[in-house]
Design goal:
Layout (H helix, E strand, L loop, with lengths): L11 E10 L2 E11 L4 E5 L6 H9 L6 E6 L2 E2 L10 E4 L11 H11 L4 H14 L15 H13 L5 E5 L7 H18 L2 E6 L2 H7 L2 E6 L2 E6 L1 H6 L4 H6 L4 E10 L2 E5 L5 E3 L7 E7 L5 E3 L9 E10 L3 E8 L2 E8 L16 E5 L6 E3 L3
Length: 365
Amino acid sequence: MAPERVDTGPAIELVEASKRYGSTLALDGVSMQIEAGEFFCLLGPSGCGKTTTLNLIGGFIPLSSGELRIEGVRVNDLPPHKRNVNTVFQDYALFPHMTVAENVAFGLRMEGLDIGERNARVNEYLELVGLGGFGARRPAQLSGGQQQRVALARALVKRPAVLLLDEPLGALDLKLRRQMQGELSRIHRQVGTTFVFVTHDQEEAISMATRIAVMSRGQVVQLGSPRDIYHRPVNRFVADFIGESNFLQGMVEQDGANRRMRFADGLSMPVPPDATPGPATLMVRPEAVSIGRPADSPEPALRGRITHVAFLGNHTLITVDTAAGALVVHRPHHGGAEEDAGWERPGEETCLWWPIDVATILASE
């Protein structure tokens, strides 16, 4: 459905882009490229600079310094309506007095597209978002999820090179939000348009994005695929923000050709060979940790005592206090009510271990 695009390099390129509001530096010299056809996510907590970046791309605010290119063209001074981008906002911004079809057609009518082409394109994109036959309704007659689909159709109907999405699912309840995540991924695959999606929800980012830029304090802290960022975070901020993590303090030591991490109780465990000797933080995800009785555990393993057990449906969460610190373990359920009656109970002694390749030694901050 998207028009054929002549390859001009990245869909979006920021070069040392900065934005100041008085003495506040909202964006601090960010450089990155977003490739054509990507589902690219700007992820981070409130105030990290992600919405500022989106607004700069859309032309809603000017750069303080640096350069912004869209499809290879410098657009620093171009107003929003002259950029080949469109935006979907969290509050939908639909016209309540217009029908669904009139809302979707609004931008095409402003461009002077003839009525035949306009109606054909409106019907095409309403079908795309699953609202075929809803054209005569008013926004007030639709659910929140349906209104979001109208806003998406209205943005896509103009066939922009880049679609900007500013936390568009934030107003939806959890079940509907997850449904819309799947719909957005499907629509992205069908239209092939470059999506730039802003969110503070790491689950949204991981489930939809081809690449993620994790932002903090106006800078990109890590940029990569969801899998790389989840399994190989560059520092504790990223590891803590993306999913749940265990952090253990220790000392990385050289052991012949290998390297090991020594913990407070004297136990040492092998770590990846690229770990730098010295004080370090080891990160391991709860689902990567195995738990067992001391008599059944391999060597080496962290000994500890269970302090908390919680059944969470598809897994049991177990908290274990060790000399190296408290660890959380996710023990998955594979079916069968008998699994609920496990031996793991508060007060029980236990051991924890994990494969060497699932642990990450984090950089100092």
